TrEMBL record:
The keyword Magnesium does not apply. Keywords: Flavonoid biosynthesis, NADP, Oxidoreductase. This is Dihydroflavonol 4-reductase. GO terms for biological process: flavonoid biosynthetic process.
Length: 170
């Protein structure tokens, strides 16, 4: 929030693009009744607390606070909400997203979630941020997602590609 407050003081800043997450959208008690979820939806913080979804909780609270600061100070805020980001890594360590997939591949977890998830390539996320900054008409929250797949389908794809790995079965 300090960055947003500093942007308000700097008269030269025209727009702020914030990276949030689809995790600030999808975790809610009524998620099965809403199809599809869109930018107007928010994760329920009580739901996140009940199920120990602390990443989603933090992303939801932080994004709501960013919107509050932006609205109070007149900052032109655009938020990019990427889904499960995949693609080449810059750092030598895997991201938390890739780490989760590695847990399924190396057998360090016993089961995968019974749910579908959206995936998006990192290059598409980068492009979304650039467009959010450069295009005048960009506004509000922007979901950045591509393919949606059930974890069971992802697991089957991984098993066919890496048959010698102890990939989780359930």
């Amino acid at each position: 929030m300090n960055v947003l407050k500093s942007c308000k003081k700097a008269k030269s800043v025209k727009r702020v693009v914030l990276t949030s997450s689809c995790s600030s959208i999808r975790y809610r008690y009524d998620v099965q009744q809403i199809d599809p979820l869109n930018e107007s939806h928010w994760s329920d913080t009580e739901y996140c607390k009940q199920y120990n979804l602390w990443y989603a909780y933090a992303k939801t609270v932080a994004e709501k606070e960013a919107w509050s600061v932006a609205n109070e100070s007149g900052i032109n805020l655009v938020v990019v909400n990427p889904s499960y980001v995949v693609g080449p890594l810059l750092a030598p360590q895997p991201t938390s997203t890739i780490q989760k997939i590695l847990e399924y591949v190396n057998g360090s977890v016993e089961e995968y979630p019974n749910m579908a998830v959206g995936f998006v390539h990192i290059e598409d996320v980068v492009a979304a941020h650039i467009l959010a900054m450069e295009k005048k008409e960009a506004a509000g929250r922007l979901i950045c997602s591509s393919t949606v797949a059930h974890w069971s389908d992802v697991i089957q794809m991984l098993k066919s590609k890496y048959p010698s790995y102890p990939i989780v079965d359930k």
